[in-house]
Design brief:
The complex is a heterodimer of chains A (246) and B (207).
Chain A (H helix, E strand, L loop, with lengths): L2 E8 L2 E7 L13 E6 L2 E5 L7 H11 L5 E5 L5 H4 L2 H7 L4 E5 L16 E4 L5 E4 L2 E7 L9 E5 L4 E5 L18 H15 L3 H12 L5 E4 L5 E2 L1 H12 L8
Parallel strand pairs in A: 4-5, 5-6, 6-7, 11-12
Antiparallel strand pairs in A: 1-2, 2-3, 3-4, 8-9, 9-10, 10-11, 12-13
Chain B lengths: L2 H51 L4 H54 L5 H51 L6 H26 L2 H4 L2
Helix pairs in contact in B: 1-2, 1-4, 2-3, 3-4
Chain lengths: 246, 207
């Protein structure tokens, strides 16, 4: 089973990271899911693949009533992001799924009906969670051609999808980045290969550098906090991406 | 592994095998359709041959015409079988999806102490039972349609054998008529063989 860690709390406004399942088969990539709660309702960010649904659901339900989930935010269309969608909808068919307009007719292959999907336009939207405004931030081509991150300006947390992701060895899979230089080695290959556009990367770095961010939460690997957030943005800005040797 | 997971594994294997059997049935149906088209052309040629033979082949001409009608009826019968096969593919695919979801929900239920999953799992199992019922109904419809096709082929066999007898009265055309009627008989037997193998398919017997 996965574990839950509350990474931010202010009254009923909470960010919970659902991470690290020791029983997960090694052939399935490890993912982080995040739950944002406010006013008794919840938004689940990148709920994960169908095969890890039991681990995510059981961890989440230990912390929060799953029937109070009002929606799912899918940063993009990959199977490790939201192939569990149909299973979440079994619990609450009214749940909405926020996703780039580009993928709103592709993701229904995982489940859902026409009413399920809220198509996010390229420029992004504000998503309301019981009065809390969450901002869908454009991150197109990082790595998906229709890609969004989610910013909570109150908690000062940016959920950054695959940006900032690191494929960590089991001995170094801490929740937070503890040693940036050591950690970033596990992120470099991933970013060089997965991120396809230097131009898109530059724009994203310029955009997020202007935001107040205490924590940058990727979908794989450890969370960047404090000074490591800006350190990561600078590192990413310098990195040449979209390169493959073959 | 728990008993529930063993059941899921067995169900998955059974549904997977069903899908494979359906594919084989469909291939056999396609073969019958192709052959029945051949009978249609052959019957048309036989009608012309009977016309040339004149009064000596009047009976042969009537039988050739009946064989032509038989080939057309057989094709429409096979079309309805194809429709049922597509229905079965749909249902088996749904059953396979059900099995996966049930496995994942069962695992979730085992990991969750709140009892929250149980009603969803029960709802899912009720849906699974409905899909299984629909598949069983389609399986029966397919079996009945196959029996209808078989009866039709019995009639085709009688027509082909009667054509063989009529060919003997064809005087100067007798050798040509005998050859055509022999070919009819061979093709009807080929169709009968295909339908026999479909009847024996484990999709109907379940093993």
């Amino acid at each position: 089973m996965k574990t839950t860690k509350t990474i931010f709390q202010d009254g009923n406004h909470k960010w919970v990271a659902i991470v690290r399942d020791p029983n997960k088969p090694g052939y399935i990539v490890d993912t982080n899911e995040y739950l944002v709660t406010h006013g008794g309702r919840g938004l689940l960010l990148d709920p994960g693949g169908a095969e890890i649904f039991p681990a995510v659901f059981s961890a989440l339900s230990a912390e929060f009533d799953p029937s109070a989930l009002s929606g799912i935010f899918a940063s993009h269309q990959d199977p490790d992001i939201c192939s569990s969608l149909a299973l979440w909808l079994e619990f609450n068919p009214q749940m909405r799924c926020y996703v780039s307009w580009l993928w709103s007719s592709f993701i229904p292959h995982f489940g859902g009906t026409a009413e399920t999907f809220v198509a996010i336009p390229d420029e992004g939207i504000d998503i309301s969670l019981e009065g809390l405004s969450l901002q869908a931030v454009p991150a197109h081509f990082l790595h998906s051609s229709g890609n969004f991150h989610l910013y909570d300006k109150i908690a000062k947390i940016l959920f950054s999808g695959d940006v900032g992701a690191a494929l960590l060895p089991p001995s170094e899979d801490t929740l937070f980045v503890e040693d940036f230089d050591k950690h970033i080695r596990h992120a470099e290959g991933f970013h060089r290969r997965w991120m396809g556009s230097n131009e898109a990367k530059r724009r994203w770095c310029e955009r997020v550098a202007k935001m107040e961010i205490d924590m940058l939460c990727p979908q794989h690997g450890a969370i960047y906090r404090g000074a490591d957030v800006q350190r990561f943005i600078n590192w990413f800005d310098e990195l040449q991406v979209g390169i493959v040797a073959a | 592994m728990t008993d529930a997971l063993n059941v899921v594994k067995a169900n998955t294997a059974r549904a997977g095998a069903d899908l494979l059997r359906i594919v084989r049935i469909n291939e056999e149906i396609k073969r019958v359709v192709a052959v029945s088209f051949k009978i249609n052309i052959m019957a048309l040629n036989a009608i012309f041959l009977a016309k040339r033979a004149g009064t000596a082949a009047l009976g042969f001409g009537v039988l050739s015409n009946e064989l032509r009608v038989f080939s057309q009826d057989l094709r429409s019968c096979m079309e309805s079988l194809t429709g049922l096969i597509h229905g079965c593919v749909d249902e088996v695919s749904i059953v396979l999806k059900d099995i996966r979801f049930t496995r994942l929900l069962s695992q979730t239920n085992e990991l969750t102490t709140s009892g929250l999953v149980l009603p969803v799992l029960e709802h899912r199992e009720a849906q699974n039972a409905e899909h299984e019922r629909r598949l069983a109904s389609l399986r029966n419809q397919l079996k009945r349609a196959l029996e209808d096709a078989f009866r039709m082929v019995e009639l085709g066999g009688v027509l082909a054998k009667s054509a063989k007898i009529e060919a003997a009265y064809g005087q100067g055309f007798a050798p040509a008529l005998a050859q055509v009627s022999g070919e009819f008989d061979g093709i009807v037997e080929e169709i009968r063989g295909s339908l026999e193998s479909l009847r024996r398919s484990a999709f109907f017997s379940g093993h």
